[in-house]
Amino acid sequence: MTTALYVTTKQFCKRAWLGALLAVGILVLGPLFFMLLSRMLAVSVGHLADNLRGYYFAYQLISLVVFLTVALHALTGCQQLCRGLPISSRAIASWMMLAMVGLVVVLQLVTNGAYRLLYFETETLTRNWPVLGPLLFMITLTLVGNLIYWSLKSPSFSRVLFSVGLIAGLFTWFLTRYYPHGFQKPFVMWQQVTLGEFVTLQLVCLGAWYQGTREFARFRAGTAAPSQTWFRVEQLWSNLISGSDTHGLLLPLSSRTALAKYHWRHTCQRAVVMGGVVLGLAVLLINVQSTISFDRHSPGINDFPELIESYFGMTLLFSWIASVFMAALLMRGMHAAGRTSMNSFLAKTPLSDRILGATLTRNVVKTYVTVFLLFEVILLLTCLLLYLMHGREALQPDAYRFDWFRLWLNYTLVMLIGYWFFGANLISILWTGRTWFYWTMLALCAASFLFFVGVPMVSRELIGNYVFHHYLMLVLILFYSLLMLGGTAFAYRSAAKKMLITPRTVWTALVCWMLCTITAWVYLYPDRVDINRIAELIFLGAILSLLFAPFATIPLAISWNRHR
């Protein structure tokens, strides 16, 4: 038993060390970089020491998520090995819980120790940055998370409700430690853990450990199964996602049409439901809550133009989140398990690379257009609800300072550009199927952004010459513009050379890009079309070129993935 657990612990540490190092590095070096940057820019940060509450809770939340993610990633690779050990299920489950708790405790103590050395004095850390209480709560939450994870291996609605209630109760209890006299009373830092609080946490830990070991034993024995109600609902959901219709007529289809329909049902419809319907309902609920709680006398949003702009802003934010989320879902439908190859039904289809790329690209466009229209419908429903609750006054607040059409057009254009820009370009990267390519592109984008932002800031502080700074910004804008335009042109040239797209596609994209650039320029600068602003025009055209790049990069990614 000792040898088996030693080998498993060694495997756990091998999987955990890199993530642990990155987690601690981000949490420690992030504030250090902020302090150095503030000192370089001569920005005073002394006021932050007087109000650490927001930063304290942000640290607790971020560290909780990051450390639990690292522990879960390390444990995921050891689960199969643990289940096959010739020892009791209780010992295996106890070891897994102990390993996760130990890792979380070590990372939390190391991070707080680094904060003590780098940022805070001992007195300040003791008074405004308590460690023991949040650490005990994090241990409890880790054990409760293990219990929920293994209990949901045999899911039922009662278990889900119990899990949600348990997590909500734990966080409510945690917040009450800082508001011991009620949430309407002043905030008090949780500096000391009383005997009652300690016993309460230990009892919860003990119960979570005991029930978690029982749930793991059921899962290991193969007796964990979903409830009948959960199984029926899961079947209905699966039919909705896959779009299967057993009552439809079977008509003869061409290979291209059959592939398009199967890919839509297998991959795209799931992305529409999860990205469009679920996130769309989320933004609808948030907007409805904002409408219900609207009060003209509140210190926050207290007039209708601000409320309506909050609708547009929330819809824009969730649409961009949906674009990235759908790209991840579409990636899962492209690759086999482990991303070792393309899905066999796509790789072995009797179609050329050009037709396959055109078919899948058309499905991507169809998916994103459908979800975009769903978000527009949700925005319309929100405004309709506002009209029903507050009358015509809500939609006609002040004609002199509020232009409905202009507001809708501005937000819709920004939402559409960012929505397609993030989603389509991310798909063209993820559909290559190569992990090293993902990280390379991410590193290049991050380095380019930091270089574009950091170089002008450093030059302005070190040199201080306005003329030099102006020309430096001009050179950077032209340099990045040429990179984007050159990359897009190279992608279209490569795709056309490999006959993945037709010349008609190239010319259509070129004409549409020119029309969009001219229209955007006239829309942004209606009164001053100045030749001296040629650098801004080139940069605008370069940004818009990336909206048309996916029509070449997606077929290239598909071809590259298919023939690896």
Brief overview, please?
This protein has 564 residues and is mainly α. 78% of the residues lie in helices and 0% in strands.
What would you note in describing this structure?
Helices cover 78% and strands 0% of the residues. It is built from 20 helices and no strands. The two termini are 44 Å apart.
Measured as a percent range, the helix fraction is over 70%
* Sheet with the most strands, sense and barrel status: none
- The counted number of beta strands is 0
- Quaternary state, please? single chain
Distance between the termini: 44 Å
Q: List unreliable stretches of 5+ residues.
A: 42-49, 245-251
Structural class: mainly alpha
Report Rg.
Answer: 28 Å
Task: Present the secondary structure layout.
Blueprint: H1 2-40, H2 53-76, H3 79-83, H4 89-118, H5 122-128, H6 132-151, H7 157-176, H8 195-221, H9 228-242, H10 255-292, H11 304-334, H12 344-347, H13 353-390, H14 392-395, H15 404-430, H16 435-462, H17 466-497, H18 503-524, H19 534-548, H20 550-562
Name some characteristics of this structure.
globular, 564 residues, 20 helices, mainly alpha, 78% helix, single chain
